[in-house]
Write a structure and sequence with these properties.
Elements: E1 2-8, E2 17-23, E3 30-39, H1 42-48, E4 65-72, E5 84-87, E6 90-92, H2 98-101, E7 113-114, E8 134-138, E9 143-144, H3 151-154, H4 160-170, E10 178-182, H5 186-197, E11 201-206, H6 212-217, E12 222-225, H7 230-234, E13 239-244, H8 252-256, E14 259-267, H9 279-283, E15 288-291, H10 297-310, E16 316-320, H11 324-332, E17 339-343
Parallel strand pairs: 10-11, 10-13, 11-12, 13-14, 14-15, 16-17
Antiparallel strand pairs: 1-2, 3-4, 3-8, 3-17, 4-5, 5-9, 6-7
The protein binds NADP nicotinamide-adenine-dinucleotide phosphate and zinc ion (2 copies).
NADP nicotinamide-adenine-dinucleotide phosphate binds next to helix 1, helix 4 and helix 5.
């Protein structure tokens, strides 16, 4: 076993603090990665505080992992020591169900194995995430980070990037399409950059008036504050696609009203409470209310290559791991521009 420094929450009400974990010795198909940076996703907070239920403790969060390969098993073909790599939200799946065969492992019928807060197939051992010095992952679930992407600013692509890229592609964001990004946080700011690069006309819908300038700088064509009720009338029937990245409950009926005929509102944020939707909100204009979960390995690699080609990375604030609890509080207050990224060297 490989003794590894990490940060963990011991229970749902606990702050994260230093913790030692054991990584397995790399098997024939495994890659041992020295983690350099790990992004802080709002899902880390939801799970560390058990807001969705069923959390496994102790928990080492972190699923926006980038680092450098330090060792590979003897059957590994795609990676060598020294390669820059990433690991996203899952590290295994059944590999045989229709979703796995189609490269949509996140929808595996046996359940994907989460990078943390999951259980390894077979042994049932808990998985531990990227707030740690190293990780061992089967090469099939490891991504290649293109050379021209800086590692720290690429980390958030592994979740925030793919979670917005995948629905933008699925619902055909591109020239002539009006896309709204609801909530300008970690996911939201990636959504703005990606939708813009795909050629869509992008509007940011935010509850924070202070983010107006940032939204335009990130590439949005328009910015609207949702605390001003008149926005729902002014933008009625306007968008082809709305990505909802907000982590708290909203009145979805109001936002559905902003869709044109056959438009789709896609839920990405996961509030802890259910939401009520009136049938007329979707019956009128034949609208779709949908959801989307991260993205498969193949599409995540496609997204990384798309970002490399288009010069897209995340806007980050780098922190030592000792400040992660403070970062959680700031994220909950919406005080992040636009992703915290942990410099894992600070664990030494
Ligand atoms: P984040 O950085 O904290 O951003 C969330 C944004 O929500 C805020 O920046 C804020 O933007 C907006 N917001 C609106 N009303 C708010 C309120 N009352 N309080 C706080 N924020 C409010 O979070 P994130 O990391 O982007 O994650 C967003 C959500 O997506 C989380 O629920 C997360 O669990 C989920 N998620 C889902 C997937 C998936 O696969 N579907 C993947 C990753 C994350 P404005 O200030 O612009 O309004
Ligand atoms: Zn995430
Ligand atoms: Zn499967």
């Amino acid at each position: 076993m490989i003794q590894t420094k990490a940060y963990a929450a011991l229970h749902a009400k606990a702050h994260l603090h230093p913790f030692e974990i054991q990584r397995r010795e790399p098997g024939p198909r495994d890659v041992l990665i020295d983690i350099r940076y790990c992004g802080v996703c709002h899902s880390d907070i939801h799970q560390a505080r058990d807001e969705w239920g069923g959390s496994i403790f102790p928990m080492v969060p972190g699923h926006e992992i980038v680092g450098v390969v330090s060792r590979v098993g003897d059957q590994v073909r795609r990676f060598r020591p020294g390669d820059k790599v990433g690991v996203g939200c899952f590290v295994d799946s059944c590999r045989e169900c229709p979703s796995c065969r189609e490269g949509l492992e996140q929808y595996c019928s046996e359940g994907m194995v989460g990078t943390y807060n999951g259980r390894e197939r077979g042994s049932g051992a808990p998985t531990y995430g990227g707030y740690s010095a190293r990780i061992v992952v089967d090469e099939k679930y490891v991504l290649r980070i293109p050379d021209n992407l800086p590692l720290d600013r690429a980390a958030p692509l592994l979740c925030a990037g793919i979670t917005t890229y995948s629905p933008l592609r699925h619902w055909n964001a591109g020239p002539g399409k009006k896309v709204a990004i609801l909530g300008l946080g970690g996911l939201g700011h990636m959504g703005v950059k990606l939708a813009g690069a795909m050629g869509a006309e992008v509007t940011v819908l935010s509850h924070s008036a202070a983010k107006h300038e940032d939204a335009l700088r990130l590439g949005a064509h328009d910015f609207q504050v949702t605390s001003d009720e008149s926005v729902f009338e002014r933008l009625a029937g306007r968008f082809d696609l709305i990505l909802n990245t907000v982590s708290v409950e909203l009145n979805l009926n109001s936002y559905l009203g902003m869709l044109r005929r056959d438009g789709a509102l896609v839920l990405l944020g996961v509030p802890d409470k259910p939401t009520h939707v009136h049938a007329f909100s979707v019956i009128m204009n034949r609208r779709t209310l949908a959801g989307s979960l991260i993205g498969g390995i193949r599409e995540t690699q496609e997204m990384l290559d798309f970002c490399a080609k288009n010069g897209i990375v995340s806007d980050i604030e780098t922190i030592p791991i000792q400040r992660v609890n403070e970062a959680y509080e700031r994220m909950i207050r919406g005080d992040v521009r636009y992703r915290f990224v942990i410099d894992v060297k600070s664990l030494d």
